[in-house]
Amino acid sequence: MSEHPGSDAALARAAEALERWMAESPRARDAARAIAAWLLEVTKERAGESERTAEAGAAQTVEVKDEAIQSTGIAAAVVEAQAGGEARTPVLRPKAITGPKVIQPAVPAMDPVEAMAALAAGLGGGGSVSPRTADARIGPMPEQGSAIEISMSVIARRCEIKADACEFARARNERGFDEVKAVYDDLRAQANTVQPCYLWAIQRDTEWLDDGLLEAAAGCYRNLGTAAALADEWPDDAPVLELLAEAQGAVFQLLHGIEQARGDDRDQRTAFAWLRGRAERGEIDSRVINAARDVDASAWRGLAARLAAMRERMEESRKGDRTKRQSLKTLEYHAERIAEADEGDGALAHDWKKVEESAAAFLAAGSQASDRSLVGALMPIADRVPESMLEGTAIGRAMPYVDERLSEAEDEDSDSAPAARRVTDELLKVRELLRGKVVVLLGGKCRHKSKRLIERELELKELDWISSDSHDSIAPFEANIARDDVAAVLMMIRWSSHSYEGIKAFCVKHGKAYVRVPGGYNPNQLAHQILEQQGERLVEGVEGQRG
Length: 547
Description:
Elements lengths: L8 H16 L1 H21 L2 H13 L12 H9 L29 H13 L6 H4 L17 H24 L5 H12 L18 H23 L4 H18 L10 H15 L6 H4 L9 H41 L8 H16 L7 H7 L15 H19 L12 H10 L3 E5 L5 H11 L3 E5 L10 H5 L4 E7 L7 H11 L2 E5 L5 H24 L1
Parallel strand pairs: 1-2, 1-3, 3-4
Helix pairs in contact: 1-2, 1-4, 2-5, 7-8, 7-9, 7-11, 9-10, 9-13, 10-11, 10-13, 13-14, 13-15, 15-16, 17-21
């Protein structure tokens, strides 16, 4: 380091380090101003009246520029005084510009003792203090892995104000400060409601910034605000977090090329720490953050378009969620009415219509037929769905999943005894026709509890319940149907997606009674369908065996 001629080397080095520190750190400049004011007061107390008057006049000419300490300032003054020259107060004269001379950020005045301590701390490390740790507006760097407990909506609001500040700067540079002073006042008032919110763009030294740069800064801030608002509403949506990381990275890259912005921003750093904390806790993939490392800030328009598309998709999703909730509520209401009514009640047509309309609206809102909420709402009325509503309907699409859930529920309770049923005259007749026989049942998942109940109530030798999926071929079923001890084949049409005609052809071929069952597994319902469709044939078969 070169030393000033005729000066004390240590003092010169300290002055040079102090000058360099103040050029880097706003807090250092605040400390220097506080000490300067204190020194002036001490000097005034000990000087004569004429000397105090001269000093007061000189003080009125001193203008302290907020964003830079000129290179000919403190160090040169100290050297001159050390050499025995006439002591003087350095006068810093920034260029005359339109608008207020000084726009101070909202920071409290420093006590002289505190200011001296701050200066000593800054010079103690060789005079180098990073603005990333010393700038009160930016705040301390978050600890590794820490989670920032701050609402993303606050960051969103601050970024919107900062974007407006950048647009103000463009308008001021074009039209002059007096024309946009009302906007300036409004921006400062808005910033005061969400402090700390440093609006570097409204500082007077941004009059030299290019309009394109200010436009890009406004766009990047606007993107970060939009992304933060989305993250506030959908904090667990990975695509939203990816966009937030990209928007944060763009602001980071842009501001390091703008001297007036001091190369940093509290809100983008907070957004980064929030994302990093979640990644380190395993809540999100760290690749979400890593993908934003090489963001090109000049591509802010494309990011804005993707954020707008994401907002539209999320709003559609929210609208769909409202539709689903309302549809499900309506479905559950009418399903309850159906479940509580007597079987065969003709007055339920309106309720069935509402159930179908609600199920269709639920699926149209983006849900799948396998949705557990829809399936659960249909389970209590599954065995009572009219045959006319089984094909080409929303209810029909959901029925295979309803059957699967019912089977699972019965399996969980398979240790309990099958529930007793009311014995009808039709059931007694079917017992006589099928006693000791085998019946094949096709369709749906085997429900072990219902299987035991049907076997018991119909006094069967066995109920051969064949479970199958929609993609299975019906060819293997022929062997089950062709058995000599099989008396009838029950086709559960509400639970089956297979060809009715193919199964019926097997029954004709092997001389088996074929029964289409539109209802559920209630033994009384099964007995009714068996007698209605194949009663005479079964009676003839029994009488033939007796003869």
